[in-house]
Fold these 3 entries.
Entry 1:
Amino acid sequence: MKSQTILLLTTLLPAVLSAGPYAPPAGQPGSTALDKDSPLFVAWADSVTHYAPGEDVDAVWQDPAEGLGAPEGNVFDVVCLGRGGSITLRFDPPIRDGAGDDFAVFENGHTDYFLELAFVEVSSNGSDYVRFASSSLTAAPVGQYGSLDPTDLDGFASKYRVGFGTPFDLSDLSPQASVDTSSISHVRLVDVIGGTDTDSTGAVIYDPFPTTGSAGFDLDAIGVIHAQAPPIEILSVTPDGDNIVISWESEIGANYRIEATGDLTG
């Protein structure tokens, strides 16, 4: 665990009075936040294929392995992207498009309103990426430790405080020939530069700026809700009268469908 001193500037983070059209903070009615201990999660990112930290991130925060595995749920055990930085994580087995949300991203915001944002992109080959649509209704610049209203934000990787994941549904993506949503092997997060980057509508995005030392989005983990079933190892195929008995090994909890064609008895 990193030994750092952090100043929780709660006096600079007043309750947000306005309310936009999107989901509210964790614990409030209508929130989509997923607790880090939710039984929905079946896997976590297992490797980092690329990490390009941006500006104003100290070396102590540049360990990409901190983004692997299950979330620690504290403000220290994270990898920082820095201003405009990015990180790409790999998933084996890949994420698939199932019913509802398919994965969730965990950040380390220490309140419901101190949110450092990132774009979310996915790929099924590690080369071609598609970005989730995003919407920011924050109307004015936000200072270094300013507040954001989560109900004004949609499609970013950091809507919720530490310990709660922001979910993403692959079916929300527009059909793209370059990406197979039944087999997403990579997720890339790209830090939003407040006051410079724009959302899917072309509106300028505002988030806390300029932060220093641990600037930009801070990744704790990415949790998988729907994963491809892992391959099975067939142990035996044994005729038994009019039936055939098949034995195999697989991961606990995986679901499979058996289809047979042709003459299996010969």
Entry 2:
Amino acid sequence: MYVDGFVVPVPKAKMKAYLAMARKVGKVFKEHGAVDYCESIADDVKVGKWTSFPRSVKLKRGETVVFAWITYKTRAHRDKVGAKVMKDKRSADIMSGKAMPFDTKRLIYGGHVISLARALSF
């Protein structure tokens, strides 16, 4: 399995817009083959002394952290799904960054192989 993970600083005043965007793009990813698409809003996320989710995105007053992830079969599968999503007209405004209800410069993301955790049977 393969996962793309995202840590996003979302203004609380724009949460409805963010969730609408997430529903839209999540549907597009799933239709093009993503195994799963999940969004989670911070509940027990404290500012750490040296590092934390809030520090990682330079969280500002009036914002909250969203942790999101998209699951795929493999990295190659992720690349195929991503290419289809990028070509899909429904996601063009989102993928261009124009319709993002948050500061995209503070978004953190990356791809991860999740087979290690499964192999260790956590």
Entry 3:
Amino acid sequence: MKINDELFDYFKQAGTIKHYQKNDIIYMQEDDSTNLYLILKGRVRVFNINPMGEEVTFEFLEKGRIFGESSFFQN
């Protein structure tokens, strides 16, 4: 989900800023999440590992995108 510039500053001020390095795993599909993630800078690759052990990229998320919301709202 992409948020508009007006809401971006609101979310940025309301949350806690964490820094991740390239190739860090932030969130796994089967994880229960109590967090909602907003990308402030850089990009995040969304991928899965197929039965043959290969990584399959679905999407790259960039600044202003929120992810982890489906598990967050379930909890």
